Amino acid sequence: MSCEYFADKGMKIDGNYWLVHPQTGVAWNDTTVADFKQTYEAQQILLEEERFEASKADKLQEIKEAVFNKLGNEQWRVQKAQEHMLIAELSGDQAALGLSKSQLQELLAKREQLRKASDEAEVIIAEFTTQAELDDFEFDVNISL
Fold this sequence. Notes:
Elements: E1 3-6, E2 10-13, E3 16-18, H1 30-73, H2 75-91, H3 94-127, H4 131-136
Antiparallel strand pairs: 1-2, 2-3
């Protein structure tokens, strides 16, 4: 987006030429040109900030959805480990029960690690101040579960 004044063509605002001020209909002069440019630039800064905040929110949502999907897709592993633990408990096999519990604990720890990584990514993204930082940030949901 741009704003530029030409004495013979008027004010070029976002690719369109205006011979008069678009809101007031008053012919351009040095004062109106300067005021309009100042207002336009301030609006562009606000729009850019809004776009950046929206991009950050989109990135966060993308990460949260990826983590949610990963945890959901891997839920069968938790169920399987719980079933093995129940089978060992019902059969009275203490060795198998201990092994099943440790496997379930390991699996749950990995799931929690993924959740913590997601939380850390959220904090990191919140601290970004430029679009380049956000563009360079990558989050890998494929932590081995």
